[in-house]
Amino acid sequence: MLFAAACAPKPAPKTAASLRPLGPCPTSTWTPEAPPPTASAKISMVLLAVQEWARYGKQVIAYPADGKPRTEQLGIKEREAPERINDYWKSVDRPNLSGLDSEVPWSAAFISWDIESAGVSRDLFCPSARHTIYVERMAERARRAGAAFIPLHLAERAPQVGDLICASRDNGDTTLENLNRGPGHCDIVVEVRSGEVHAIGGNVGDSVTRSVFPLDASGFLSPISARRFFTVIENRLP
Q1: How far apart are CA 208 and CA 69, in angstroms?
Q2: According to the model, what pLDDT value does residue 24 have?
Q3: Among positive and negative, which fits the CA dihedral 194, 200, 205, 208?
Q4: Exposure letters 176-185 (e unless 16+ CB within 10 A, then b)
Q5: What is the residue range of 190's domain?
Q6: Could you tell me if residue 76 is inside a domain?
């Protein structure tokens, strides 16, 4: 019986073609916070991310191209600021969750809170508790005129400030060719330096964290085992 179980066919990998369409972006009664005093939604996204990073003690994790991630500065953990994480959850209509629900990933709620708080309408960005769902909506919206976020392959776009960089995680196999709503993670690019890009995201090391990733000589993301990036999302907001 054990042999038969071992030889049983594995379930087919989930593919985008097997999923039901997402449909229109749902409405929400959540009221975003006032954005920073700037006319640029793109700059507001970056300022909000930096603001939250400072609120959480400026945790930094570096991801070298040839080694394991290393924490260069510790910050405040999710359980020490549960109410603020509850604010992020409210942006995706899950007000029952907070930083005390550490088993529930809140990184997509953080990105959703940031973008909508920057003043971006739901026609341009639809908040979601799952990164790969809002990326899928971005890809759909990119087929029409006036799109604000354009998912691109890694070789098509060197990350710029305001862009999102997204990876598949936990043995997921999401790609731009197979937007299968698997596990993923996105960060907002806040700084680009020679050879490295700095991006801020939530629920990284149980905090709002500034992650440092390597770039190649042309400024494109370098492959690293700790983050299996599959897209750079160009931010065309003014």
Answers
A1: 16
A2: 95
A3: positive
A4: bebbbbbbbb
A5: 39-235
A6: yes
Res 1: pLDDT: 36
Place of tokens 């990105």: 111
Q: Is residue 147 part of a domain?
A: yes
Q: How many residues does the chain have?
A: 238
On whether residue 172 sits in a domain, the answer given is yes
> How many C-beta neighbours within 10 Å does residue 23 have?
6
Ranges of residues in the chain whose predicted pLDDT is under 50: 1-11
* 154 located within any domain: yes
pLDDT digits (tens, 9 = 90+) for 177-208: 999 999 999 999 999 999 999 999 999 999 99
Bridge partners of residue 168, in order along the sequence = 184, 228
Name the nearest CA neighbour of 192 among 217, 158, 167.
Answer: 158
The tokens of 233 are what?
A: 């999302």
Can you give the pLDDT at residue 12?
52
User: Quick one: tokens of 126?
Assistant: 């639809």
What does the pLDDT read at residue 38? Answer: 85
